[in-house]
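Long-time lurker, first post. I've been practising inverse folding by hand and with some scripts of my own, and I keep getting stuck on stretches where the structure tokens seem ambiguous. Below is the full token string for one chain I'm working on. Before anyone asks, I'm not after the true native sequence, just a reasonable design that respects the backbone. If someone could post their per-position residues I'd love to compare against what I wrote down in my notebook.
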């Protein structure tokens, strides 16, 4: 190989390497948690459209209502992450995100709620009985109410699979509707509440 060919090759390799590292500029870990591309904790890394927050070493997702949800796991190959459902205040039946009316995602951002979530609405008013939700006495939410000691015991509750016929940007709670909720990812019928994978699975549009 003569020298000029070698130079051109080296130049090409250099361009390739710079481009690849620019495209996959992953953010540093948050606490002990990896922050895979395109998620971005900072303007200088990741892709800023995929903003998440590193608060005191805890990786969190911010809703349009201004509430932070802890990120429990991330699967960058499937473009998915799972956030923690809000806690339910002790001795009452209110989700900790009640004041922001539950989970609401900004429709201009590249995230939505996936179709793998079984949502359980708790302390609902009778108006919900007319909805297509499953509010029967053998709804999954009964197990949750009875076994997971919260203030929601013996309230009217309903469950539904968050499928594509519904808005994928909101899980709503409010006075006069339901005041608390939880969610289970990939709930398998016949399994017990203590084996459920509590979480809300979000997916993102792949970064190009
Ligand atoms: C259930 O919701 C109603 C409002 O719809 C509220 O008045 C009541 O306090 C709630 N119950 C509990 C146990 O939090
Ligand atoms: C409600 O859900 C339970 C548990 O999956 C199921 O056994 C029951 O058939 C459902 N009821 C209705 C009306 O869909
Ligand atoms: C949510 O976003 C994914 C990825 O862009 C998309 O494939 C899916 O259709 C969206 N789901 C809904 C219900 O809009």
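-- Answer (accepted) --
I ran through it position by position. Result:
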């Amino acid at each position: 190989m003569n020298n000029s060919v070698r130079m051109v090759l080296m130049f090409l390799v250099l361009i390739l390497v710079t481009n690849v590292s620019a495209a996959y500029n992953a953010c540093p870990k948050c606490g002990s948690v990896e922050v895979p591309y395109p998620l971005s904790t900072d303007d200088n890394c990741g892709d800023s459209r995929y903003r998440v927050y590193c608060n005191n070493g805890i990786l969190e997702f911010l809703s349009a209502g201004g509430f932070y949800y802890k990120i429990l796991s991330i699967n960058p190959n499937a473009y998915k992450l799972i956030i923690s459902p809000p806690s339910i205040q002790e001795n009452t039946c209110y989700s900790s995100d009640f004041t922001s009316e539950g989970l609401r995602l900004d429709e201009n951002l590249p995230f939505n709620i996936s179709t793998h979530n079984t949502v359980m609405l708790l302390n609902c008013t009778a108006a919900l009985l007319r909805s297509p939700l499953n509010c029967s006495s053998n709804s999954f939410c009964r197990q949750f109410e009875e076994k997971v000691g919260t203030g929601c015991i013996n309230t009217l509750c309903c469950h539904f699979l968050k499928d594509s016929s519904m808005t994928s940007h909101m899980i709503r709670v409010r006075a006069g509707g339901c005041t608390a909720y939880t969610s289970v990812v990939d709930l398998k019928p016949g399994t017990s509440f203590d084996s459920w994978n509590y979480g809300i699975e979000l997916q993102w549009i792949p970064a190009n």
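A couple of notes from the structure itself: The radius of gyration is 22 Å. Residues 3-23 form the longest helix (21 residues). Happy to go over any region you disagree with.
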